[in-house]
Sequence to fold (340 residues):
Amino acid sequence: MLRFFAVFLITAFISWMLFRVKFSPTLFLSHFSTSSRTVPAIIMASPRTVNKTIYSVEQPEGKGARVRRSIGGRQLATLDPFLLLDHFKVKPPAGFPDHPHRGFETVTYMLDGSFTHEDFKRHKGTIHAGDLQWMTAGRGVLHCEMPGPEGGEGLQLWVNLAKKNKMVDAAYQELLKKDIPVVKKDGVTAVVIAGECLGVHAAVRTLTPTLYLDITLDPGSHLTQPVPTGWNVFGYVWSGKAMFGPLEKQTEGPEHNTVTFDKEGDSVRMENISGSPARIILIGGQPLNEPIARHGPFVMNTQEEINQAFHDYSEGVNGFEHAGEWKSDHVRKLEKKMFK
Fold:
């Protein structure tokens, strides 16, 4: 009888602890011993400390384009596996006419307006506010990206590919706003572009393991987002401001600032203590830890591979077949006007 009563008490205690963990965003349960005498251990989440904040200055990029460069500038050249993050605003006639890529992925996420994409394999489409294009350049893409009549504002992220994936066939994943998962909880709204947030998984598949979230924090709300050990992670504050890091060591991230974090810790904590919403783009990825050789639109591992990329592009081979014969509709229209 006493043994039965003891087992009942232990079972009730474990159930109570599981209930607490399930409904607490900062508590995680360690594994249980098979011994009935073992008390379950509770481990607090360990948010990463802010390493630095960098203001992304808006600068001209060609005629009619304005860019805030988060990654890829002098203060933060790369953050493995990320090569570049641009917050762009482009109005016609500016844009990005016919140009090649090899060896990485471009991720275009529209915030406002529209952008039309066309490539040398006759793939063409337009993405609008809230839509996403995840393009794997792989062994070769020649394409054109131009804003719609109303202009376009968005983010373009360059994700490096591992050596084993640099020469895969080019591919696209294009998702409309309605097809990208969104989760809302306790004043937090997260658009789950890649990875997972609050139990919701993204629809995108990534060759380089990546987390990409568009997070809106209502005033007074906070989020602790798990991040795998060893990954690099950063936040770009698109609008408003937020506090980042553990409660005892918070750092303010103002609008248009890039926030980087130390690698120690298993999560990123952000909190909005202001009186207006804050919108944060949180991006993380598994480092490739490979050498980077980079020249213009090509990103490889060695200078010899860069030279080969230029050769293949100029000769129209090894992924660039028929590139020399192709011109986008945009370029053709320009030429037609010039020769009238």
The CA atoms of residues 138 and 324 lie 18 Å apart. Helices lie at 2-22, 303-315, 329-338. Residues 2-22 form the longest helix (21 residues).
